[in-house]
Amino acid sequence: MNHLPQAWGRPRDDVYGAYDNSHFQSAGPNQHTQSPIVTGTSVVAAKFKGGVVIAADNLASYGSLARFTDVKRLRKFNDNVVVGFGGDVSDMQYLDRLLNSLDIRENYSSVDDPLNAKNLHTYLAKVMYKRRSDFNPLWNHLLIAGLDGEAKPFLASADLLGTTFSSPTLATGFGAHLAQPILRRTIPDEDSVQNVSQDDAVKLVKECMKVLFYRDARSMDKYSIAIITKEGVDLVDGVKLENQSWAFAEQIRGYGTQTV
Amino acid sequence: MAAIFSGAPPQSGPGYSFTQTPKAVPSGERQHGFYPYTDNGGSTLGISGADFTILAGDTRSTSGYNINTRYAPKLFKIGGEGPDNKGARIVLSVVGFAADGDALKERLDTIVKMYKYQHGKPMSVTACAQRLSHILYNKRFFPYYVHAILGGLDEEGKGALYSYDPVGSYEREQCRAAGAASSLIMPFLDNQVNFKNMYMPGSGTGHELKAKEAGPLPQDHVEDLVRDAFTSAVERHIEVGDGLQMMIINREGIHETYTALKRD
């Protein structure tokens, strides 16, 4: 212990060496986000007749460390829209605050029509594009699910570069590789959305969450799922994966110590 | 801030016991880890005729080996009334980085609409073409990463087609292919539209041989060429496919068609 209060509670320099402050900036340009730190993995979503279903697990990873296991990555905006966030969690929290202030402003305005999913997607896409153009990106891949101005199912994505696209089924991150092919098997195009019921779509998305848990090392078995229909938003957090079967695991050869 | 750390001994003091402590800020500027562009694949093409212009583009959007969506239009009506561009006479096609393409489309569309409000007449394609060049050139040091093609009818009612590079160089042409499969489609167009390497049969041998004169082609023939170009490109380029969107601009307005392409 020394008499400098600034040093109290800090690792002792004679034991641990001087604090390495080389990562503090002394000169040079402003540093913006160069890579995400705490991250969420896939978001999965599919349209069905009369609405959209969207899901994301509750894990926030710090590299390969499963750091936070109770993170809600689906955000209800109003009775028409849910936003799903993949990528950096702190940027997600920033966008959450941004959406909060947008919502408050909207509720105080004299316009009666609430913002629909299409409006919100346009807004978020412009935010993302502006930030990438400033070389200060929000390191996220967003899915915006809900109903458009004509109360038809709407599903679109916006990413850190400001790229946007819409499709009857969407999945971000690892889900783009693993879940999207499964979803497209049932819902290959816009026309087939009419043949898919809410129950079918929910079952399909839950199946995708299971496959992602099996194969995505940065995923977990607890997730949020939201269903958006004319009746409003039904968002459930902390759903556990059901009917897991690890029977295939003992068939796997080639990893570990077994001698084939 | 500095006071908080002033309690520590100078950096030249003892280092970590297990490894050498870096003692100075790394010299030189740190590299940016963020690259603001991506390639969303796809291809576009435009051909102009005597009294029409056709623009076409596939509707696939990709990132790497992934298909983002099977329907993301690359053709946009410019001007006209309202968000649906009713009564528009100009079409812009953009291929490359889709986010820049959308931003570019939005800017040009606003400018053309404002022109009509301010001058009480629609903007000519010639003027619009030059304005588009200026928009691209203005962002020369952080370019819109797109190959744009602009189509419409000129003041004489003839088909007009302008093609651009990402920094605004532009040229009026008879035909142009852009995007991922441009290297596959453009030579086909050179041959079939501008009749390159085509000669009049029986016109002689050696220097006597007469090159085939290029001229405006009929509309149905051009439509066939476009379809052939894309069905062939789909076979050989993985970023092209899913659907073919065509916009035909003539005296009546803009006629839009969609035909399916292979989704493999």
Descriptive labels:
heterodimer, A: Glutamine Phosphoribosylpyrophosphate, subunit 1, domain 1, 28% helix, B: 264 residues, alpha+beta, five-stranded antiparallel sheet, 12 strands, globular, disordered N terminus
List the helices and strands and how they pair.
The complex is a heterodimer of chains A (260) and B (264).
Chain A: H1 13-16, E1 38-40, E2 43-48, E3 51-57, E4 60-62, E5 65-68, E6 74-76, E7 81-88, H2 89-108, H3 117-133, E8 140-147, E9 153-159, E10 164-166, E11 169-171, H4 174-186, H5 198-215, E12 222-229, E13 232-240
Antiparallel strand pairs in A: 1-4, 1-7, 2-3, 2-11, 3-12, 4-5, 6-7, 7-8, 8-9, 9-10, 12-13
Chain B: H1 2-5, E1 43-48, E2 53-58, E3 61-63, E4 66-69, E5 75-78, E6 90-96, H2 98-119, H3 125-138, E7 146-153, E8 159-164, E9 170-172, E10 175-179, H4 182-192, H5 219-236, E11 243-250, E12 253-260
Antiparallel strand pairs in B: 1-2, 1-10, 2-11, 3-4, 5-6, 6-7, 7-8, 8-9, 11-12
Helix pairs in contact in B: 2-3, 4-5
What does this structure look like?
The complex is a heterodimer of chains A (260) and B (264). Chain A has 260 residues and is α+β, with helices and mostly antiparallel strands. Chain A has a single domain (38-240), classed as Aminohydrolase, N-terminal nucleophile (Ntn) domain (Glutamine Phosphoribosylpyrophosphate, subunit 1, domain 1). Helices cover 28% and strands 28% of the residues of chain A. Chain A is built from 5 helices and 13 strands. Chain A has helices at residues 13-16, 89-108, 117-133, 174-186, 198-215; strands at 38-40, 43-48, 51-57, 60-62, 65-68, 74-76, 81-88, 140-147, 153-159, 164-166, 169-171, 222-229, 232-240. In chain A, strands 1, 4, 5, 6, 7, 8, 9 and 10 form an 8-stranded antiparallel beta sheet that branches. A 5-stranded antiparallel beta sheet of chain A has the order 11-2-3-12-13. In chain A, helix 4 (174-186) runs antiparallel to helix 5 (198-215). The longest helix of chain A is centred in the middle third of the chain and has 20 residues, at 89-108. Chain B has a single domain, classed as Aminohydrolase, N-terminal nucleophile (Ntn) domain (Glutamine Phosphoribosylpyrophosphate, subunit 1, domain 1, 4-Layer Sandwich). Chain B is built from 5 helices and 12 strands. Chain B has a 5-stranded antiparallel beta sheet. In chain B, strands 5-6-7-8-9 form a 5-stranded antiparallel beta sheet, covered by helices on one side. In chain B, strand 1 (43-48) and strand 2 form a beta hairpin. The model of chain B is unreliable at 1-10 and 13-20 (pLDDT under 50). Chain A binds chain B through residues 2, 4, 6-7, 10, 13-14, 16-22, 24-29, 31-35, 129, 132-133, 135, 137, 157, 161-167, 170, 176-177, 180, 189-190, and chain B through 3-11, 13-17, 21-26, 29-30, 32-34, 36-38, 40, 61, 63, 66, 68-72, 97-99, 102-103, 142. Chain A: Non-catalytic component of the proteasome.
